[in-house]
Model the fold of this input.
Amino acid sequence: MTSRERVLTALGKIEGLPDRPPLQFDLCRKLIEDFGEKLGIAPDYSLSYYEDLTYRISANDIRTAIGSDVVVVGGTVREGFVPEPVAENIVRNEFGMAMKPTELYMEVVECPLSEAFADGDIDDYAFPDAYAEGRFEKAARDIEKYKGSHFIIGDCELSIFELAWHLSGMEKYLLSFALGDSWVEKLNDKVEAWTTDMAMQLVELGVDAVWLGEDLGTQMSMLISPEMWRERFKPRYERMIEKLKIANPELLIIMHSDGAVAPLIDDFIEMGIEIYNPVQPNVPGSDPSELKAKYGGRINFFGGIDQQELLPSGNLDELKKEIKMRARILGEGGGYLMAPAHIIQADTSPDTVEAMVKIIQEL
Done:
């Protein structure tokens, strides 16, 4: 099977079963640099409009050379945009967020809407232009290159909730959200419009799937109640999905959320979502046997390999055991796109990444 056929078969778009579970993975900058040097491939970075999505949509040449069956593309900063230096290593992005690098991520240290308290404050805030020149130049290039060989995902994470609180500040946003302040819904309206415009352009370029979502859970529970999510966010997702499906009825929709979000899986299915990611291990509601028994055949699973402890440990016997278990349970009868549950970070060695790929390819 080609990589593309393998994924489409696993996800039920081609009749039958894949020859093995298909594989997708993301690499942090250090691992991209390490593999680029080893493979003799110059890393190609696609600077996302939100910095931490950069490594989701970068280095497709390197990832496919290692063994990914999937290519991920997305929107970048507009043509000619350079993050504005603020102080020392802090820069300001297109949204006006001041961003500071940490050991693993870029952290928002100043929010452009931190002083917003009224509808007019949101009205006065101008989002970046979703249709700006250069926004999808690299996405179009990679889609053209890989459309016949690999499954192509268009990434639109930070779809509503997470982008909104990054703009205003988490504590402020959650308190105002719970109190029912009207400016919050104004902001959510603008974020929904932005994400819809970005996703529609990816659909028009020819992606096979759109990756929506945001982190809604902690290691133990959801950040907001399932009831509040259903009331305030589910209708927004339903609107977006309807528009995307009208544009391409064959499009697959992926919903991402880290954390303990199992209470929402039935809602995801009702909304027309075909793929649930990242199936984070070691949180309540993530047992693979229970998930497959309850939801198998109703939604596909994407992720599941532990990158918090297992991959960094370098224990290849345990890694092989884990991969075989998840392939056997989640992949039974198809319905599973195998992947680490997060971008692989620098605490995992290149040798372990290569071992993971080899184990999966030999299933």
User: Anything to note?
Assistant: DSSP finds 15 helices and eleven strands in the chain.
